[in-house]
Amino acid sequence: MVEPTKRLLEPFNFPGNHVGCLLIHGFSGSPSEMRLIGERLAKFGWSVLGIRLSGHGTTPEEMAKTQWEDWVKDAEAGVRELRKSCQTVIVVGLSMGGLLALHLATLGLTEGIVSMNAPMVLVNQRTRYVRLIRPFKTFVRKPKKHYLGLASQLENERFVYERIPVDALISLNRAIRKVRRNLKEITCPTLLMQSDKDLTVNPISVQIIKNEMQQIKPEVLNWGKSGHILTLGPEREEVALKVHEFLQGLDSIKL
């Protein structure tokens, strides 16, 4: 793996108006997945905080020391940080970051969420049985996937691990089940996004999330040209604009 630049790994903070956007990257990824959309939202005037989850943006060995509960604490700390200067906090997450956004919403910690490609069902069904290989393997290697012709571009814009700690994957599977059970508790405005060409998360996930939400009717947007990393895909600019429009439309926001 090419040595990543510091910009890909570092959290970022762009002060803006009284509405704070907490941006959360995905499992085994880094803030690089959310930086571009963060820059776009900042240009629109929103306050933006992009966090780095524990064990991410370093080494797979460091990630192996962390689990779902650690990542939840990171997300909750991000909300608290934004509330120091913002009246309203919206959580925007990609993949596992989207799962964390949903989790924070079940706890009533945010005024709204944008969840992108959050996992309920993973494409690789073998991940369901990863616990069985734990006695024999500590890490598993990610399968090589194409990114709709954007592989070289993504390599320059994104830092992600090529090996995944088995224990972290077990923890993620447990978290998916937990969050799914609690989706009925969500009451805040919600925008769900799903890439049709997602090779990591089965696109049926967005319908599962929508159907489990009993107290609200979330807005659902499907993206026909993008893969799993929606924030860096060919529809990236449209994605950022839709998030901006969602933020504008929230009744609690007074610009």
Structure in words:
The protein is of the alpha/beta class and 255 residues long. It has one domain: Rossmann fold (3-Layer(aba) Sandwich), CATH 3.40.50. Helix content is 37%, strand content 16%. It contains nine helices and nine strands. Strands 1-3-2-4-5-8-9 form a seven-stranded mixed beta sheet, sandwiched between helices. A two-stranded antiparallel sheet has the order 6-7. Helix 2 links the parallel strand 2 (19-24) and strand 3 (47-50). Helix 2 crosses helix 9 and helix 5 (96-106) packs across helix 7 (166-182). It is globular, with a radius of gyration of 17 Å. The N and C termini lie far apart (44 Å).
Topology record:
Elements: H1 6-9, E1 12-14, E2 19-24, H2 32-43, E3 47-50, H3 60-63, H4 68-83, E4 88-94, H5 96-106, E5 112-116, E6 139-141, H6 151-157, E7 163-165, H7 166-182, E8 190-195, H8 204-212, E9 219-223, H9 236-249
Parallel strand pairs: 2-3, 2-4, 4-5, 5-8, 8-9
Antiparallel strand pairs: 1-3, 6-7
Helix pairs in contact: 2-9, 4-5, 5-7
Q: Strand share of the residues?
A: 15-25%
Question: What is the multimeric organization of the chains shown?
Answer: single chain
Calculate Rg over CA atoms. 17 Å
Query: Spans with pLDDT under 50 lasting ≥5 residues?
Result: 146-152
The biggest beta sheet reads: 7 strands, mixed
The overall number of domains is: 1
C-alpha termini separation:
44 Å
Total beta-strand segments: 9
What's the CATH H-level homologous superfamily?
Answer: Alpha/Beta hydrolase fold, catalytic domain
